[in-house]
Structure formats: structure tokens, C-alpha cells
Amino acid sequence: MTGRAGVGKTTVLTRSLNILRDKFSIGGIFCPEVRSGGVRLGFEIVDIATQRRGWLARADVPRCSGPKIGKYCVIVDEAINVGVTALEYALSNCGLIVIDEVGPMELSIPKLKSTIEKVLKSDKDVIAVIHRNLITDVISELCRNQECKVYEVNERNREYLHLEIVKNFI
Q1: What is the mean pLDDT of residues 76-90?
Q2: Which of these, 6, 24, 33, 83, has the minimum number of CB atoms within 10 Å of its CB?
Q3: What is the pTM of this model?
Q4: Are 148 and 130 in contact, with CB atoms under 8 Å apart?
Q5: Structural domains of the chain ordered from first start
């Protein structure tokens, strides 16, 4: 699934998961933004199965030791600790794996990137939100030998797209 920022990709994903939760054990990661007083502070990384949380990236890091993506410092240790652990657990124990999202911050961490690639190349059912600037690269790299469906979320389809996505899994 892809689409422009703020169009409703995570909402479509959440609606899909609310239906699929009865059919699958679900694991993986969400990377929601964190705001305070209307200001974006950064992004968390959340383990869907355990609700463990850590920072993926923050704007308020004075001496950034990890990669910088725009004004955000990627917090490598926390992202690996939560994200890689969540995805490895999902690969071993879950019927459906979710990645929200595959974007520049997530892919700037080699260990997390390789784990995301492992998930996307696995024989598991996966729903992934992919940054729109990366969709062509991800599809050409990962969908050569397996079935992939790409949905572009927009204002016209975001209210019902979850039903179309769910049909692929039921």
C-alpha cells in the first residue's frame, strides 16, 4: 500500500487489521509520529504483538550518532531492539506480518533493512505500507518471484479500500 503523506494509509491498514484479527495472529511494526502541542517530535517504532515501543527517529537530538533523515536523527539501537525483534517474532509465530512503513528512516538501519527484506521475501502473508518514493524500487526488487498487489490510497478509495485488501486474505 502506498500514497501521499496524510492520505490515510495507516487508517486503511488499521481497518483491514480490525477485520483480519479474527482470522490471523498478527505481528510486525507500526511507526507512528509523535506530536506535542501540534509539533512533530519524531517517530516511534511499535511492536504490534507486544506493544513494546522505542524511538525510530527524533528531531531533538543535539549530537546525532545515527543516520539523519531531514531534521530527524535515527535512533538505531532502539529501532533494532524493537523493530528487528518484532519482525523476527512475527516471522516465527504469526500468520500475517504488518510493516508500517517501509521508508527512508527504516531502511537507513542496515539490520532493520535486512530484516524487512527477509519478511517481504518470505512466504508469509504481509501487508506493508511503502513510502511512495520507494514503491518502484521495492516492487522491482521484491516482487519478481512472488505475487504482490499494490494499492494506492487516495481520497476516492480510502473509505472502502480496506474491504478490497481483506478479500485477498479471506
Answers
A1: 98
A2: 6
A3: 0.92
A4: no
A5: 9-31+77-167 (3.40.50.300)
